[in-house]
Amino acid sequence: MIRAVFWDFGGVITSSPFDSFNIYEEEHKLPKDLIRTVNSTNSDVNAWAKLERNEIDQEEFDSLFATESERMGYSIPGKEVLALLKGQIRPEMINALRAIKGKLIQGCLTNNIQSLEYQQTNKNNSATSGAHPEIMNLFDFIFESSIESVRKPDPNFYKLACQRGGVNPNEVIFLDDLGINLKPAKAMGMKTIKVVKTDKALQELEDLLDFTIT
Question: Is 110 in contact with 128 (CB distance < 8 Å)?
Fold first, then answer.
């Protein structure tokens, strides 16, 4: 029986930052998908991974990312990449969150970074919630790589998230826009949905539930 829906944030609740990456690359006459290539090279130990686990701060990321991109023949300041991360809210996803709220447990499972404000004050409970508090209130819990020091696709990320939500993996539907993040969740027993088009993903979700969300 399904008891919970776990949502990724960027690329699911909001539009994908990959589109912003490509626009930046075009404007700066860089190869398409260069930023994604840098991020996916040595993907568990590179600057991006360390930042999402909160092992380095944004100043360190700025220089480390530049160094990593220089190895590929280009120099991209990390701060300029971070400025591209904010996506547009997808209203259809918010409507689905509201339709599910109170019926099932909802968790936000995100690889993210702590804002400079969070790093300086540490007053918020969530690094993500500072940007969208009205949306984050729709979740029963938020599980963030930058706070938990573990990130997708590490299986421990999903195991700990299930513990936080008080559910077993086979009671969960998980939505993410990256197949690499869905693979370990599926292996654990979760039902997974890859979000490419919003309407298709929501139809798949509704098909797994016994009530209307759209």
Answer: yes
